[in-house]
Amino acid sequence: MRTALIVARRELGGYFATPVAVVFIVIFLVLQGLLTFNLGNFFDRNQADLAPFFSFVPWVFLLLVPALTMRLWAEERRLGTIELLLTLPITQGQAVVGKFLAAWTFCAIALALTFPFVITVNYLGSPDNGVIATGYLGALLVAGAFLSVGSALSATTKNQVIAFVLAVAVCFLFAVASYPLVTDFLSRGTPELAEIARRISVAERFQSFTRGIISLRDVLYFASFIGFWLFLNTVIVDHRKAD
Amino acid sequence: MSALIEIEGLTKRFGTFTAVDNVSFTVARGEVLGFLGPNGAGKSTTMRMLASFMTPTSGTARICGHDVQTNSLAARRSLGFLPEGAPTYPEMTVLAFLRFVARIRGYSGAELSDRVDHAVSLTTLGGVRLQPVETLSKGFKRRVGLAQALLHDPPVLVLDEPTDGLDPNQKHEVRALINRMTSEKAIVISTHLLEEVDAVCTRAIVIAAGRVVADATPKELAAMHPSGRMDDVFRTLTQPEPAG
Questions:
Q1: B130-155 as b/e, with b when 16 or more CB fall inside 10 Å?
Q2: Which sign does the torsion angle of CA A11, A16, A19, A24 carry?
Q3: Which of A104, A76, A58, A56 is nearest to A163 (CA)?
Q4: What is the pLDDT of residues B208-231, one digit of tens each?
Q5: In this predicted structure, what is the pLDDT of residue A181?
Q6: Annotated domain spans of chain A
Q7: To the nearest whole angstrom, how far is the Cα of A92 from the nearest Cα of chain B?
């Protein structure tokens, strides 16, 4: 774990040494602000909660998280630094976990910087801050899920654009799996598939967090989702590192 | 003299192409082995297998007795490796990069700073310590890669083209550095510069198309051709049918 944290620290430093950090955080905050206040009718609803804010979080992450993960392995492979990193006394698992933790910490920082929303809603009314806290926890888990997908797909290619597009596409599938568009289509032929699609959907799981519910099943879902993709990531790195 | 590097029947195939074909040799403490061959002969592939970056198709290698496949972490702890082209993270400063490698190598506190300072002074990087690696010239980048490989004072050094792209002064410096370390280490350097063999190596292995075609001291190697010139020896050994 210590080694993974050293990798994470270097990776996180990399975000802040380049314009990636500033661009990501500014765009994230601007998008969340615009969507919440305009599309989400934050003020007109006359309700002291962050429901409109959280309803857009998965969609903003869908677009931005792959931008964060696309460089994780693709750039390492393009620069050849993967040969340096993986010939140090470090396991591939440690490298994968370290990189994931760096990106996740970065998302946590971006989420933390949305604190003015919390202050605003507390100033205007008396919201249930417990629900807001579980909403943030859910948002962080959604970010983790998308990050694990993006990181694994980044290891499949040297090209960051391909890594980005693949990650958006796969994350989109997991985001919309529970939407009527998908489930209706599936239930026409095979109702079992529609049920499975609903269960593996990231958006569906996130919903309960935004209602203030933390269920063990949802937490286990996210843990195993992230675990599966990170395992896949390790396998892909092992298989493709020297190509 | 004990063999710090042992390679046994090392083979690597990519599909139907055999990049390294049943290569075996040992390198003892105090030896500097020049690994020669034309481009694409399998030098880098062999070195990558030594550094546990590639998995051999068959055969194996041991570094200080640690098998690179079954005990890969221990093998990598005893090894300082300079990958081809000396890749480093461009946005990091020299110091931050070396401290990162030192941390991964398990150092902390005062010892970490001592190790980094020592590596910086060995490779005379003092003047550029706080510069991002991407702003450095090719020669400095190569030295950053060397500093990273020397940081933990490993018994085994594997350097893939350590002087490639350096100017004559820098080449001289790197060779002097290698000569200073010779006595206590087993060193393998790959190169296609034949003068390098005379300058630093105690022994040379020539490989062509993945096979070892010669394993001798530089003097013996030079005697293999009537002209006594390394260039001629190299061409005779590595070309299936000598031109002309």
A1: eebbeebeebbbbbbbbbbbbbbebb
A2: positive
A3: A76
A4: 889 998 898 888 888 888 887 778
A5: 77
A6: 2-238
A7: 11
B105 touches chain A (CB under 8 A): yes
Please answer yes or no on whether B105 and A14 come within 8 Å at the CB atom: no
Lookup: tokens for B131: 């510069």
pLDDT (average), residues B192-221? 87
* Chain B interface test: which of A5, A16, A77, A83 (most B C-beta within 10 Å): A83
B100 interfacial to chain A (CB closer than 8 Å): yes
Tell whether B147 and B176 lie within a shared domain: no
Q: Assess whether B167 and B242 both reside in one domain.
A: yes
ipTM for the predicted complex: 0.90
Q: Locate B75 and state its tokens.
A: 């093998």
List, in sequence order, every residue forming a beta bridge with B214; answer none if it has no partner. B206
Asked whether the beta carbons of B193 and B162 are under 8 A apart, the reply is no
What sign for the dihedral angle of Cα A83, A88, A93, A99?
negative
Angle at Cα B149 formed by Cα B54 and Cα B38, nearest 5°?
Answer: 55
pLDDT in tens, B31-76: 999 999 888 888 999 999 999 999 999 999 999 999 999 999 999 9
A6 touches chain B (CB under 8 A): yes
Mean pLDDT value across residues A203-225: 92
Whether B12 contacts chain A with CB within 8 A: no
Domain with B13, as residue range(s), is 1-78+154-244
Q: Of the ranges A148-152, B177-181, B219-223, which is most confident? A: A148-152
In this complex, is the C-beta atom of B76 within 8 Å of any C-beta atom belonging to chain A?
yes
What Rg, from alpha-carbon coordinates, does chain B have? 18
* Residue in A14, A86, A241 nearest the CB of B89: A14
Task: Flag whether residue A239 sits within 8 Å of chain B, measured between CB atoms.
Answer: no
Q: Give the CA distances from residue A144 to residues A67, A180, A207, B42, in Å, rounded to whole numbers and listed in that order.
A: 14, 25, 16, 41
- Model-level pTM? 0.91
- The DSSP result for B93-116, as a single string, is BHHHHHHHHHHHTT--HHHHHHHH
My answer on whether B32 and B70 are in the same domain is yes
Helix or strand or coil: residue B47?
helix
pLDDT of residue A172: 92
CA pair distance B140, B137, nearest whole angstrom: 5
Q: Are residues B116 and B232 in the same domain?
A: no
